[in-house]
């Protein structure tokens, strides 16, 4: 994102869109991929060590890993995944090694194992990019590096790093997404039978304790009975839909015990994915605001003002801010002629959502000069897109009241089994005050001055004291919550300054 130069206003930090690439260069991507392949190769070496009874047995074991689709992705650690996937029944090509001598087979299998490692990497990257739609492939490789090629550990790191506070609020949705992501990973890795692969892992997840115990006993010179018991478990029928519900949660919790989320996560300068997640949250606010505004007046009056100045920033919650700003602009700048519009323009809605996002980020960066676009975006994600919760110095009393309401309305969020959330609080908290050496760099009024100066803001707003309008919005949240008919809209329209 580009920081706009403002003449004569050195305290303002106004961000605008930029076409600069924030991702790694091809050289860096190749280096990260090479390092990840080395970790994957290490997992295959450990699996071969555990499966081969002696050195002479390494070749047939390697051939079985290759022929059985022994990929390193699944619901356990990479080495256990390779062992489990090796014993999953898969269609094999009977002529794959027919008529080949030991030397030719050895040369061929080493090459094919390297290919299998590369396909495993492709499968894991596909899993993450399918599970997190805004995640770029190069970012997926970075998270996998941080997780030592452990797929579920990488997934947990992404959830925590991207401040996905509502992750797991719908347990069936998470389990469905995990199953679909596993299938996509198998397809990307060219697994011989993706459906069988997913079914086997559902079976493993439904009997996870037994599967982990059996896999841990697979060592050199293990009794054949242990291998037989493992194969019997893997080849069993997958659980029914009702029986499998909640079973994937055990694998998720086990991933937390394998490797905790690191406190410091590198590669924090890529904001594209975070920006898309924040835009998605802001889009939800606009859908709620559109549902609250009366349909008749929306198409005849408020659609124009919403698309022109219905920003989600302000001293209230995001949805209330949209409603107040929409009604204010319609009252102060009424249309020159009446228009009856039949639908809300999708490009127009995206435009106002994008301007709102840059307004939120620019406010925080102006208020706290040590924040950059990336850190401000992360704070807003942690605050669910609410400026009131993102900035502890905006209005402490209102923020405390909002947090109290959230605790009453969403108590299950903190106790959801999939949740990584730690509580309801302001996103910046006391950290900002200490890092800023005495408090914010500018006052709230100074930070509000940059809002009408954002690129794309309608010209008439530059002639108005927008901060004065914002001040007069305090205490309007109760009215905004009832904006479902024309009477509260009229009450808002009749307020001073509107």
TrEMBL record:
Which intervals hold domain PIR2-like helical? 39-158, 280-393
Q: Which InterPro entries match?
A: PIR2-like_helical
Please give the coiled-coil regions recorded for this protein: none
* Protein name, UniProt field: PIR2-like helical domain-containing protein
What's the source species' lineage? Eukaryota, Viridiplantae, Streptophyta, Embryophyta, Tracheophyta
